[in-house]
Amino acid sequence: MRRRELVTMLPLDVKPPFSFARTLEFISRFPAYRDACLLAPGQFTAAVAVGRTAHAFTLREAAPGRVVVELPDATPPRIQRALLARAEHFIGATDDLEPLYSAAAGDEPFSTLLAELHGLHHVRFLTLADTVVYAILMQRAAMPAAAALKRRFLAGLGLPVAHAGHTLRAMPALAALAELDESAIAAAIGHRLKAQRIATAAREIHALGEPFLRTAPYEQARDALLEIDGIGPFAAAAILLRGLGRMDALPWMPQFARAARTIYGREVSESTITRRYGRHIGYWSFYVMTGAGRRALH
Q1: How many CB atoms lie within 10 A of CB 277?
Q2: Burial of 30 (0-12, 13-18, 19+ CB in 10 A)
Q3: Is residue 274 part of a domain?
Q4: How far is CA 40 from the centre of its chain?
């Protein structure tokens, strides 16, 4: 019989409305997340690099509206704080949904979607490095193919950590990713051009710095990303939205227009949506994309 490992349980503040069930559903349907996590009823375990070492953490709902982070009992306080912050970021725990929900008053199709997904917070990528790699792997690739390339990347270059008889692999931190040369990346993923773009993007984004990308005016951060070879409008938007949780702007791309047609049953005007949802436009897009994918399965 396997000896049960002692764990430390840390409470994670979540801002209501919050649905952990919706969070788990989203993770289970998105290959880039699902394949990197251990999913079990009511919980999931992921791995993240803190410095040069990988650490696993488990998120579960201890009671309605009460989420806890479980860590090995011997985890040092400094690492505990880092993992708690990373878990909070990952599930958008402290995001305030009320402005989005208020803006939806009078928008019947979107209000119907809000009822379906009530309490879903924005699930980001675990780290900026994770987002950079996946944004490039997704170029000219369907989602399952991009997820398969990510698995190969992590198998070759990820940082391993054991958990409950399994080995999870964490994406290297951005500083470590920036040190990799393209030949090592190409050997892992079997794609020279994407390897070159990942190596270049990692170095240049590390030089820009995560604080700059988080706090600079959106247009300034976006334009700095677009200066990087291999980073186009979709990758820049993904890094800012899905990686850093920036909801304040959104380039109107064909995939958003297609998803909106699914939700609204008609073409929608970019200007109308932007006027209504303003600096919450990123959250609108997250709900629309999630809802369109969900409805396609039903």
Answers
A1: 21
A2: middle
A3: no
A4: 19
CB 241 within 8 A of CB 271: no
The tally of domains found in the chain comes to 1
Tell me the DSSP string of 10-68: EEE--PSS--HHHHHHHHHH-HHHHTTSEEETTEEEEEEEETTEEEEEEEEEEETTEEE
Domain with residue 70: its CATH number is: 3.30.310.20
Length of the chain: 298
> Measured between alpha carbons, how far is 144 from 268 in angstroms, rounded to an integer?
28
> Token digits for 269?
């005007």
Residue 223 lies in a domain: no
Q: Which domain holds residue 45?
A: 7-116
Kindly state whether residue 250 falls inside one of the protein's structural domains.
no
Along the chain (298 residues), what's the average pLDDT of each consecutive run of 10 residues?
72 96 94 88 96 96 92 95 96 97 97 98 96 95 92 97 94 97 97 97 98 96 96 94 93 90 95 95 96 87
Provide the whole-model pTM. Answer: 0.94
